[in-house]
Amino acid sequence: MVEMEPAVGDRCSSAQLWDVLVDRLPVERVPIASVRAADSPRLAGESAEHARMLAQSGEVLPPIIVHRETMRVIDGMHRLKAAELRDQREIDVRFFDGDEDEVFVLAVRANTKHGLPLTHADRTAAAERIIRSHPQWSDRMIAGSTGLSPKTVGGIRSRLTEELPRMDVRLGHDGRMRPVDSGEGRRLAAKFIMENPDATLRQIAKAVGVSLATARDVRNRVHRGESPVLPKRGERPSVPVAAGRREEPAPEEPVADGFPGAARILPILKRDPSIRYTDQGRLLLRLLDANTMLSPDQWNSLIENVPPHCRELVANAARECAEVWRQVAHQMSSRVR
Question: How many CB atoms lie within 10 A of CB 199?
Fold first, then answer.
């Protein structure tokens, strides 16, 4: 039996375990009758049409994930129903050992990465439940599990404030606790810098629980004699920069909106049975593959080797292709809304 324990010594980091360890769980063959229905994040339940499509595909479907203690499905209800439609008596299973809060998070995380996508209502309801069960998780961490943006998760959290315990720190994706009040983190960083002027950015960030970008910005502000706390929008800095001295631009904090880049999206789509087992789905994968197969350096090399007399023609063709994909993105987003 493979134990799936959090990597940072705190159970609340377990949402990241899906990506890291689930494929290492051993596969076992169990009777279908022994498996129970999922505590599903799908508000409307499973799609009978999707299950029929999987059953009729004739493909060997991946193992489902089951909570060993309760025998409830974590991920794979459509595959389970497809197996029943095929009159199978047994099904391949990977067993997960953990508590029920972890089970639900893994179910949401799995369903935002492959299979039939969760609706926005499904993801919103899931975020509400995870915020209640894991109030110490940061908005970005919950966003990464639900497929929502951190801003949306923050809005949900603000509506639930009266129901939640007061938390002065929250756990981020990297397993580190950080202050909820960014101003307090900056003040602590400034104090640490004053007491340890030779400390590296990593030492500052680790000591007070801020990001490297924040540590760098605070150090620059301290060196310029400015307040370490960012001024509110519309406010002037509390201490102006000395005349004749060039101000260093503050590095931007990394922003995670809950949506992976194209290089990570394509493998997810390729594993999705509703895409890979249909002619239109395979055509879509080929088109996306053609647009993501080259690295930036390869694109630069390709551009540099276009003959001068063809460059304007290629530019026009590229603009036309970009417009087609822009229209595709607009129509997809409209259907999601």
Answer: 17
